[in-house]
Structure formats: C-alpha cells, structure tokens
Amino acid sequence: xxxxxxxxxxxxxxxxxxxxxxxxxxxxxxxxxxxxxxxxxxxxxxxxxxxxxxxxxxxxxxxxxxxxxxxxxxxxxxxxxxxxxxxxxxxxxxxxxxxxxxxxxxxxxxxxxxxxxxxxxxxxxxxxxxxxxxxxxxxxxxxxxxxxxxxxxxxxxxxxxxxxxxxxxxxxxxxxxxxxxxxxxxxxxxxxxxxxxxxxxxxxxxxxxx
Length: 210
Ligand SMILES: CC(C)(COP(=O)(O)OP(=O)(O)OC[C@H]1O[C@@H](n2cnc3c(N)ncnc32)[C@H](O)[C@@H]1OP(=O)(O)O)[C@@H](O)C(=O)NCCC(=O)NCCS
Prior knowledge:
With 210 residues, the chain is of the alpha+beta class. It is 36% helix and 28% strand. It contains eight helices and nine strands.
C-alpha cells in the first residue's frame, strides 16, 4: 500500500516504519527459521522472491505493512535501522467487496524481544492506524491452534472466536470496532506519534558522529 510509504509511527517501546528493500535481507534470514515458518504458516522464499514480496506489499492496495524497530536501539542514531528490526505487522484487506474487513498479522521475529509487551503495543498501534487511516471496522486474526501465545494475546485484546478450521488447524479470532472499541483504541494509543519517515531518517543520519 502506498499510503504508509513515508509514515513512521512512534510508540513507547517501538517504532514502526514502512517495509523497504533495505529490510529484506534481515527479513529473509528470519524466515529461514522453521519455528517462524510454522508459527506464521509461511513457506520459505528465495531472496529474490522476498524482494518481489516486499514490492507487492508496497504496491498492492490491499496490503499495509510496517517493520517493527526496537525504539531503545533506534534512539541511538549510530545504530543502523536494520540492526533495530525485531518483527513486522500487516493488515490485509481480504475481501474486495468489503474494504472495512482487515486481517491482522504480527510477528516478533527476534525471540529475545518476545514477552516484553511489544506484540501487545504493536497490535494496538496497527489497529488504531487501520481504524483511523484505512477505515477498518472489523479485524480478524487467523492463528494456528497450537500457537497459544498468539491466541492469548489476541483474546486479551478482546478478540473473540469466530470459527475453527480443523483442516488447517487454525482458529479465526475477530473484533468489530464499535464506538467503545474505537475510543479505547484511541485512548490506548494516545501517545503514538506519526512522523515523516524520510525526514526522520535524514535527521537521524545527521546526528551520527563523523
Ligand atoms: C505472538 C506474539 C506476536 C506475541 O508478542 P509478544 O511481544 O511476545 O507478546 P507480549 O509480551 O506483548 O504479550 C501479550 C500477551 O501475549 C500473551 N503471552 C505473551 N507471552 C506469553 C507466554 N510465554 N505464554 C503465554 N502467553 C503469553 C499474554 O496474554 C500477554 O499478555 P500479558 O502480558 O498481559 O499477560 C509473538 O510472541 C510472536 O510474534 N511470536 C512468533 C510469531 C507468531 O506466533 N506470530 C503470530 C502468528 S498468528
């Protein structure tokens, strides 16, 4: 999606930036992990295919992706952005007849960064972005039945079971964004700041000691 190609979202623990070609090598390394392939129901791709995928995430109107950066590391301008990457978060508009329905996916790829509240914060930030910028009214998350951590996280965020597919061993959790959900989301993410991505990168480069 083009809408977020120059958007940076800053939260308390994380910074979300658009998925660029420079992020692909690290992303590709992550996705070699059999554990991540299994947890995210993904097939391994070649580096070339991963670049194609990055381009399609950028260009296609039904996909919105951010790379998750560790804010503490990113705050040190001498640390390369790629070194701060910890995962990604996506919204897919899955139904061409209903642009208000979005599938949400999140991955904290770096195991050392799991269990620290990052998934929770990023999911709320992405939902808030989806509601305010993309007009999303219903979120769904498809999760492997054995992925208890992800199921627990979405349930804690008030998602409810929509259906279970025994064939794919997958549960669909969903949430409709009514007025009270919207207010809670906006309240939870009131500290989130939206910045110009390219400008922020260039400011960061200028701060690096020569
Ligand atoms: C699932 C995932 C996104 C959660 O993100 P996270 O940053 O580790 O989770 P958080 O620390 O924000 O915790 C959020 C909630 O998840 C649940 N949770 C987190 N770690 C857990 C654990 N080890 N056991 C059980 N529940 C856990 C809890 O409900 C927690 O809420 P609480 O801290 O208020 O109790 C992350 O672990 C991940 O990306 N894992 C690998 C890929 C994956 O499974 N992606 C999801 C595909 S659908």
